[in-house]
Amino acid sequence: MIVSFTFGLIGILFSNKVLHKLSLTALTTSRKKVDWNRIFVGFFTVIIFNLAIFAVGYYLAPDGLVWNFKLEPFLTLLVICILFLPFQTSFEEYLFRGYLMQGIGVNLKDNKWIPILVTVMAIAPVTYIVLYANFKLEMLPNLGYTGLLMLLLVFLMDRISKTNQTFLHRKWIPLLFTSVIFGVMHAANPEVEKLGYISMVYYIGTGFILGIMTLMDEGMELALGFHAGNNILTALLISTDWSALQTDAIFLDSSEPSAGFFDIFFPVFIIYPLMLLVFAKIYKWKNWKEKLFGIVPDPVSELDEIIVIRED
């Protein structure tokens, strides 16, 4: 399963280098080089938070968790997680917080419609699912209503862009688009089928925190570490027989799946903001309004930077 993400990551890096003539550093961060310390800070911060939450939950309600530790399978899992799972998380980060976030921002800055069309295509399946879930429409009427809603979205974005040229040039637009698309891409997970579409709040919320920390820190390093730490710990600590990632974890969750406050809303609206405050304190983030809602700056190619340096 991880192999497919590895090929996806190779494809993104190949496109970035060959088609766009950019380095891995330019796709990753605005700094002169990738800050590995930030990657490790993001990695260990999410692990500490998640272990603390798990410990409290296990203390309060241990009945649903079954001890599942077997040394040999766990060691095999540990090696796979450490060596290969970062390929999966890095693929998603370089796609959403790197390639798409930069690409949508730059294309909208130039009034190009490719990112809007891509976003509409990504949102369309969610619209289809919502219409089916709430109104039980059959396929053809559902497709018709979905198409009309997507056309309305494109029309509204076109009107807005013509009446207010700076509206689509704001940083929150690529943040919103990439966060929603990130959540949509997880809609096929078995967790969504079991817990219901309310679980999309968690996936889209996770996309938002990863996007916010990328914009505030002006680089993907924290998001890369955060995503890898979260998925590795999840794979090692708890497994279920209905999740997308079923492993020989330490615990097996035998409880009936539910989408309550502590499962969905507590992480997104309480834990995630606390993590952002921790990062903000460590790296002294300032000017939140400008970094999240300001106008996307004009893109500067690496060749332009080299010329400027030589002129100086």
UniProtKB/TrEMBL annotation:
Is the keyword NAD assigned to this protein? no
Coiled coil regions, renumbered to chain: none
Which UniProt keyword terms apply here?
Hydrolase, Membrane, Metalloprotease, Protease, Transmembrane, Transmembrane helix
Ranges for domain CAAX prenyl protease 2/Lysostaphin resistance protein A-like: 167-232
Name the residues that span the membrane: 6-27, 39-61, 73-91, 112-131, 143-160, 172-189, 195-215, 222-244, 264-283
Q: Which GO terms describe its molecular function?
A: metallopeptidase activity
Entry keyword annotation includes Transmembrane? yes
Xref: Pfam families:
Rce1-like
Per its UniProt record, what InterPro entries does this chain match? Rce1/LyrA-like_dom (IPR003675)
Give the protein's recorded name.
CPBP family intramembrane metalloprotease
The scientific name of the source species is Kordia aestuariivivens
